[in-house]
Specification:
about 70 residues, alpha+beta, elongated
Length: about 70
């Protein structure tokens, strides 16, 4: 069984004063990346905000594997 894991740090200028628009944009971007390439093989993928800052990771992983 696989699980989807996501971590996003919303504590920077791209998310200020309201994190909602930037977070929504990131989630759409992640969805497009998953649709284009399903061969992530459990490796965490970097998430960059609109300012180019590393703000998190996502992965599709086998349950029980870190």
């Amino acid at each position: 069984m696989k699980s989807f894991r996501l971590y996003v740090n919303v504590d920077n200028d791209a998310f200020s004063p309201d994190p909602t628009p930037e977070l929504a944009s990131l989630l759409r971007s992640i969805a497009h990346r998953i649709e284009r390439d399903d061969s992530y093989n459990g490796w965490y993928q970097t998430i960059l905000d609109s300012n180019g800052n590393d703000v998190g990771r996502f992965a599709i992983k086998e349950v029980g594997r870190e």
